[in-house]
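Progress narrative, Year 2. Work on SAM-dependent MTase RsmB/NOP-type domain-containing protein from Oleoguttula mirabilis advanced from sequence curation to structure prediction during this period.
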Amino acid sequence: MSLYHEAASVLVTARSKSISLKSIIYNKKDWKSDPKTLFALTTEAAKWSEVLSEVLEKSGVLKIERQLTPILALVLTHDLFLSKKGIALPASHGLTTSISKHKARLSAELTKARLRRGLATLEQLRASINEQASNGLAADGENGSESSRVRYPRWIRINTLKTTLEEQLGSTFAEYEQVPTLSKVTSSSSSGKRLHVDENIPNLIAVPASIDLTTSKAYKQGHLILQDKASCFPAYLLDAQQGGGDVFDACAAPGNKTTHLAAILQADSANTEAISEHGKSKVLACEKDATRSLTLQKMIKLAGGESVIHVKAKQDFMKLDPTAKEFAGVTALLLDPSCSGSGIVGRDEGGVIVHLPNAAAAPDAAQAKAGKKRKRGGSAAKPQSPPQALAVEEIVIEEEAPPTTTEDTEAKLQTRLANLSSFQLRLLERAMAFPAAKKITYSTCSVHPEENEHVVVKALQSPIATERGWRIMRRSEQVAGMRGWQTRGWADATKSAVDGNAAGRVGVEEVAEGCIRCEKGSADGTMGFFVAGLVRDVGEVRMDGHDANGASKAIHGAEEEEWGGFEDET
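Result:
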C-alpha cells in the first residue's frame, strides 16, 4: 500500500512549497490512496509531530532503522499508536515490521512524553493536542501568544434531507450544553461539550474545534455535514423555492453546497405543493473532472439527495449550451468557481509547523558505553553537544525558493489573480445567458477584490447583463439571515472597478451593500469568503431562448475556456 509513502510525500511537498495539505491532496488526481484517508493521516501526523518526534528521537529507532526517513517514521508511528485500526499494512510488510518491532521501546517513550506534560492518560494527551491545534492560529496568521490567538469553531450543518435539528439536539448532542453566543464555544475558558445554534443559517451549529464527530454514527450516516458557516451562504442566499424552477450548481464537487441546495428545496416542498410547468424542481450538479464527479456522487448518496439532485458527471459547465431544451427550466444558478483560496483558514499562515525527529540526536548504546570507558580511563572527553542539540527540530514550512523582492511577489500574485478573475468573469457571464434564469449567487473563498467585487462589477457592466437586465440583489431583497449580516462588500473596490461609461447604471453603494463578506480571523468564526447575488425580472420565456422583453439568446464573452487548477473544498 502506498498510503505512508504518499503521506510522507505530501508533507515534503508542503515543506517545500508552503501550501496547505488540503490543496496538495485535492488538487492532484492520481493518488493511489483515498484522498480523505491521506488528508486525515497527514493532518493528524502534523498535529502530533512534536510529541512523536520526541518519542522517535529518545527511542533511537532512526539510528537502527536507517531505511526510514524521519517523515516516514513519523506517519508510521502515528498509526501504530493513534489509529484505531493501527498501521494499514499487513503485519509482515517491511514498513510495518520496521516500526512494530520497536513498539515496546516507543510505547515507553510515549508514556514518558505524556508524563512530562503532566497528563495521566493518552486521552488527556489527545485532548491537549487537539486543543493546541484548534487554538494555535493568531489573528495575523502567525503562531501567537495566548491573548492574540483566534479560536475557530467546528461548524456542522444538520442535513435535513435525512434528519432535523431537533432530532440531533435530542440524540447526537443530547449531552451538550447549548450556549447563546458563539464566543462561549470559542473562548479560551470554554471546555467540554458545548454547542451554539447559528442565528444566520438555519440548521447550522458550532461546537469546539477539538471535538471530532467523524467517528459518530450520525456523521457516518450522513446526518451531519462538516461545512464552514461561510460556505453555507451561497445556497441560502439563492433562496431556491420548490416549484420555482430548477437550480444549477455549476462547480459542484465535492457537494456540500449541492446537498445544501437540495435540503433547502426539500424544506420548501414541505410547506408548498407548487409545481412548475417543468415539473418538480431539481438540482443539476455539474462537475467536469472524472474523479471529483465520483466524489460528488458519493457525497450525494450519503446525504440522501439522489431524488432531488441530477449529476452531470464529467461535463464542463463552460461547454454547455444555456439555450438547450434540458435547461429551459433553470431559474437559479450557484457559482462557486476555482479561486485563489486566500480566505481558507491555514492557507496564508506560512504553512503548517512540522516537528521532525533528528536521527542523529540520540546516541545508541554502543556510543554511550564507549563514552563511559573514556571517562573511566581518565582521557579527555570530547566536548558534549549543548542540550538544545538533542531537542526536537522544529521546521517551519516555507517557500522552497522565496522571491527576492516584495515587488516580485506582488507581480506573481497579480498575474495569478488576473488569470483567475478572467475565468470567473466568463463563468458568470455564461450563467447570465440561461434564458429563464432569475437569480445567481457568485462566491469565492478569496479575500482579494480582484476575484470578488471586481468580477461582480465587470459582469454587471457586460453586454449580456445589459441585454438581459441583470443587477445586484439588493440587501433589502436578501433572505433575513443574509440581510442581517453586517460585513458587506468593499465600496472602494467596487468603485475602482466601475467603468466611467457605466457609472450611472452600476450604483457603487448599492452594489457594495449587496455584496457579503466574511473576514478570516474575526469573532464570527468563519474563513474569508465573498458572496453576491444577481437578479433580474423575467417575463414569460419562449422556447427559442428569447424572453418576453425580446432579449436574444446571444452569449457575450462566454466562449469556451478550460481551467484546471486552484479548486478548494469548502
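Residues 463 and 556 are 6 Å apart (CA to CA). The longest helix spans residues 406-432.
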